[in-house]
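Translate sequence into structure tokens.
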Amino acid sequence: MDFNDSDTIPGPRAEDHLPHTVQAAAKIVIVGGFGVGKTTMVGSVSEIRPLTTEETMTQAGVGIDDNYGSESKTATTVAMDFGRIRITDQIVLYLFGTPGQERFWFLWDGLFEGALGAVVLVDTRRLEVSYEVMGRLEERGVPFVVAVNTFPDGPRYPLEDLRVALDLPPELPIVECDVRRRASSRDVLTTLVTFLQNLHLTGSLS
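Result follows.
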């Protein structure tokens, strides 16, 4: 999904300095397979100019990187994306987008360090990639929600069918989104924050 198709506004969209009302901050990671829309999500929702580490794709990735459904991509994240958003006047989220190509997954453990939660972006054209992504989060004990990015050419399935296909427990949120749209991306993050708050209240989150 091309970053240029998003609702991103050039330049900063808010003051770089946080207002005095902010009382809590959390590190959130955006994870998923190659080309699922992680960079686009961070860029569309960030209140500050997002930091990206995209590099032009070369022949070196041919036969190594699975670009099914993303054949038009000309750049890829090689380290991380970074953005920031205030969910409320009191809560700010620092967003870290992970690289999607499997040969860069060794960087994930460092990005997971200190993360309060995660968003797993899913592409219905390549559901199988999601299993290892979620497995890595579970191994690290990072709570997550699943967001199904609705690509125009991707098949659409009822969310409960996807829940079964992905073997998700009934209490784990799964939502549809369009990461090009700021409001949609923000809704996903709000869902994650609510989920984390509920886990804390029930004692499931230390």
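Note: The longest strand covers residues 24-31.
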